[in-house]
Design a protein that fits this description.
The complex is a heterodimer of chains A (590) and B (198).
Chain A (H helix, E strand, L loop, with lengths): L28 H8 L5 H8 L3 H10 L2 E4 L7 H7 L5 E5 L19 H10 L5 E5 L5 H10 L5 E5 L2 E4 H10 L5 E5 L2 E3 L18 E3 L9 H10 L5 E3 L6 H10 L5 E3 L9 H12 L6 E3 L21 E3 L7 H8 L7 E5 L3 H11 L5 E5 L15 H10 L5 E6 L4 H10 L5 E6 L14 H10 L5 E3 L6 H10 L5 E5 L5 H10 L5 E5 L5 H6 L9 E5 L5 H10 L3 E6 L11 E6 L12 E3 L1
Parallel strand pairs in A: 1-2, 2-3, 3-4, 4-6, 5-7, 6-8, 8-9, 9-10, 10-11, 11-12, 12-13, 13-14, 14-15, 15-16, 16-17, 17-18, 18-19, 19-20
Antiparallel strand pairs in A: 20-22, 21-22, 21-23
Chain B lengths: L1 H11 L13 H10 L10 H7 L5 H11 L15 H17 L2 E6 L6 E4 L6 H12 L5 E3 L3 E3 L3 E6 L5 E3 L5 H7 L2 E6 L1 H7 L3
Parallel strand pairs in B: 1-7
Antiparallel strand pairs in B: 1-2, 3-4, 5-6, 5-7
Classes of the chains: A alpha/beta (590), B alpha+beta (198).
């Protein structure tokens, strides 16, 4: 159902309401809207809306999906006023460092106030994707009951709800196509939610409950899978056994993405071959994940299914190098690979040898380096090996225990197309282990060579020189993450002055203070947000910033027992919604 | 050159002290207190572990030193930057693994009494064999798939779930630890029978 525009009268909320300056468009409005409705990229749509008033109006009426990167940058009222026909909303809440416990609980980003407005203004809402938002069971129930057309719910890194809330969704959303529950802090009471799907429910296309630990009723799951002929994505939890998985695969060989349960079971030879055959019948399989508790006996079962794999997520599987190597031989088309560093450099050498089409590699630490016995992990050797073999590599997230400037320089020469370079040397402030020097030249090489770089995370021992390089060369950089680095305010100043496309800057435990913060305060209005924690900014510095820039929200999170002058955690973001009305007592808006 | 020595010192000695600003400033001390928030368990005594692992490689020894020195490292909140969800997954599995343990008896031909070892403590064959060598004071020779262990009269074997005596090292590690019921270090002519290619 499309709400049509009634007449071309200027909308009071749009920028230029003077009729005489309206040029008559060569296209009738309906044609313009139809053309614009084919535009999906939000960057394109934002550009379109700036062309002229007519185009602004046509764009706002034809937009059906909206992405809000910071839920506090705009209010639901402003949003619904500008875009009346939205069917799908993506909302992101807390600052990213909340993933690492740097943001206290009950900070905010509650979705409920949004749902209340959407219930009246977006009655036909179909999809809601939330990241780092607080969602209550009450909100989920309200969602389930308020939107008759609701189809897709995706919750990533959210908190505040329990499986009861999920039960509301599965009970009431008759048209549900997608239920994607990922990496949330959820109160897992029971698996009953799965049994709440109505008897003849057929519409599900995506089901991901890998996050949830309680047992679901397997018969209900089996029935669901056999009825939902359009099911493309099925990611089960750890409690689903291999035998059960096999039965599900036989029911749904058309699956494109499969997430396995726990694989730590003994299989009889018959079970082994049945499972292998079930996997090999999944001709559309592109993405595999899960693999919690895997044994090498299981892996060969997957080999026939790996031919068309483009994304393999082994980041919960503690594999050794030979196990990975044997698996990768069967994955020639692999584009994205996530592994644990238990595979060590040898495993990464196998990546370099077997995956020429690889575009993205993420290597996570298998254990906490501070707590465990000596674990070898990966070093510069593995990264180098991958860079020699995988020329198309453009996205890397690499947790390692040592690195050298020379290695990084060679790596980016081999792979100059990096768009995302996130290197985490796990010991804070660790220098080049061969030369003992800071890692400045490494990141210098990255920004000089990789002109398409959009996201960068730095680590190791770094002086202001790194930031000079970043400011000078990283002209496409949008996101920068910094920890335990830099020597003085000058470092941060270089970045603020130098990176024209910077949108997100997150800093922890660096010696940057008020001078750096205030050096380019106008810059923050062109950015989504700035986070600074454990730095040297003071309350007075923050107050000054707040005074100079009234359209920025300057918030300080106070931890008790600390000096009142220090601004422990600073979060600055642009907003058209004004200061937060729901800030808890420990968040001070200046 | 001096600079690099200073930095190395930073790592080993002053790394015990959590530093957030430039060294020597008052502010950094205060901030140190604010970020010390440990909900992790206390580090076990590292020096024992260091001793029993293979230390022939210099870099391992270096890591040993680093690991032994700074308990304060464990107190950096949110570092390394791994999502809490992922961290908790491994935490839970580790706890599980720690409480169960996998103790098997080890006998050696000619030794007066048996020993017991926890297979879960070892990450792979090299560490297990080294531990056995240390425990029983022998050395095991070089392993090859074709010929078994060459160069020593001692051969490590184990009894699997089916009751058969197998050569240690043939199957992948995970399969080994889940099927090994007990171990026996064979010596002399009996050992050579198993060591030959079948």
């Amino acid at each position: 159902m499309n709400l049509k525009r009634k007449n071309p009268n200027p909308d009071p909320s749009s920028p230029d309401s003077d009729e005489s300056t309206q040029l008559s468009s060569p296209f009738p409005d309906e044609v313009l809207e139809r053309v614009l409705s084919l535009l999906n990229s939000r960057k394109d749509r934002n550009s379109v809306s700036l062309v002229c008033k007519d185009w602004y109006d046509a764009e706002r009426w034809s937009r059906t999906h909206v992405f809000i990167g910071n839920c506090y940058s705009v209010s639901p009222e402003i949003l619904t006023r500008r875009f009346p026909n939205i069917r799908s909303v993506t909302l992101k809440g807390k600052p990213r460092f909340s993933d690492f416990d740097l943001v206290p609980p009950k900070w905010g980003a509650c979705v409920h106030s949004w749902l209340l407005v959407f219930a009246t203004k977006y009655h036909f809402l179909e999809a809601l994707r939330l990241k780092r938002m607080t969602v209550s069971d009450e909100s989920l129930k309200f969602l389930a009951l308020s939107f008759p057309n609701f189809k897709a719910l995706s919750l990533l890194s959210c908190d505040g709800f329990s499986t009861d809330g999920l039960a509301s969704i599965t009970t009431h959303c008759k048209n549900l196509t997608e239920l994607d529950i990922q990496e949330n802090d959820i109160d897992d009471k029971s698996g009953k939610w799965l049994s709440c799907f109505p008897e003849n429910f057929m519409s599900l296309e995506v089901l991901n409950f890998a996050n949830l630990n309680s047992d679901v009723n397997f018969e209900a799951l089996e029935r669901l899978v056999s009825w939902c002929k359009s099911l493309k994505v099925l990611k089960v939890n750890e409690n689903i056994t291999l035998e059960q998985l096999q039965r599900l695969l036989v029911l749904a060989p058309h699956l494109r993405e499969v997430g396995t349960g726990s694989l730590l079971q003994e299989l009889t030879p018959r079970q082994h071959s049945e499972l292998k055959s079930a996997f090999s019948n999944c001709k559309n399989l592109n993405i595999l994940s899960g693999f919690t508790e895997v044994t090498s006996i299981f892996l060969p079962v997957l080999y026939p299914a790996c031919t068309n794999l483009t994304f393999l997520n082994l980041s919960y599987a503690v594999l050794q190098s030979d196990e990975l190597s044997n698996l990768l031989i069967h994955c020639p088309l692999l584009q994205r690979l996530w592994v644990l560093d238990s595979v060590e450099d040898e495993g990464l050498e196998a990546v370099g040898s077997n995956c020429p089409l690889l575009e993205e590699l993420r290597v996570f630490p298998a254990s906490d380096p501070h707590e465990d016995e000596i674990v070898h992990g990966v070093t510069e050797i593995g990264f180098l090996a991958v860079s020699y073999g995988c020329k198309k590599l453009h996205y890397v997230l690499y947790f390692c225990r040592r690195m050298t400037n020379a290695a990084v320089t060679t790596i980016v020469q081999n792979c100059p197309d990096f768009t995302h370079f996130r290197l985490c040397i796990m010991n804070p402030r660790q220098p080049d282990y061969q030369t003992g020097e800071p890692m400045d030249e490494a990141f210098g090489a990255v920004v000089k060579t990789c002109t398409k770089l959009r996201r960068l995370a730095v680590s190791g021992l770094l002086t202001d020189l790194t930031f000079e390089y970043i400011g000078k060369y990283a002209k496409n950089l949008e996101t920068l993450s910094v920890a335990f680095a830099g020597s003085s305010d000058w470092g941060m100043e270089c970045v603020l002055k130098g990176c024209p496309k910077l949108r997100k800057l997150e800093i922890r435990d660096c010696p940057f203070g008020n001078a750096a913060l205030l050096s380019s305060f106008r810059k923050y209005e062109s950015m989504r947000s700035l986070w600074m924690s454990g730095c040297k900014v003071t309350m007075n510095g923050c107050r000054l910033l707040a005074q100079e820039m009234p359209r920025l929200n300057v918030e300080v999170i106070k931890e008790c027992g600390n000096d009142d002058c220090q601004a422990d955690k600073l979060y600055v973001y642009r907003s058209v919604a004004g200061p937060r009305k729901d800030a808890p007592p420990f968040v001070l808006t200046l | 050159m001096e600079k690099s020595i200073a930095f190395e010192k930073d790592l080993n000695l002053e790394a015990t002290e959590l530093r957030l600003g430039l060294p020597g400033t008052k502010e950094s001390e205060k901030q140190t207190q604010s970020t010390i928030k440990s909900n992790k368990r206390v580090l076990p005594d590292m020096s024992e572990e260091c001793g029993s692992k293979d230390n022939s490689n210099v870099s391992h020894v270096k890591k040993c030193d680093q690991e032994v020195a700074p308990p304060a490292k464990a107190q950096v909140v949110g570092w390394p930057p791994v999502r809490s969800y992922r961290k908790n997954c491994f935490q839970a599995k580790k706890m599980e693994a720690e409480t169960t343990g996998m103790y098997v008896k080890v006998s050696m031909d000619g030794a007066p009494y048996l020993r017991k070892i926890d297979l879960k403590v070892y990450k792979g064959y090299p560490e297990l064999l080294k531990a056995l060598e240390d425990m029983f004071k022998f050395s095991v020779g070089k392993y090859s798939e074709r010929e078994g262990y060459n160069g020593s009269e001692f051969v490590p074997t184990y009894e699997d779930k089916d009751g058969d005596w197998m050569l240690v090292g043939d199957v992948p590690w995970d399969m080994f630890i889940s099927s090994c019921k007990r171990m026996r270090i064979m010596k002399g002519s009996e050992a050579r029978g198993l060591g030959c290619a079948v």
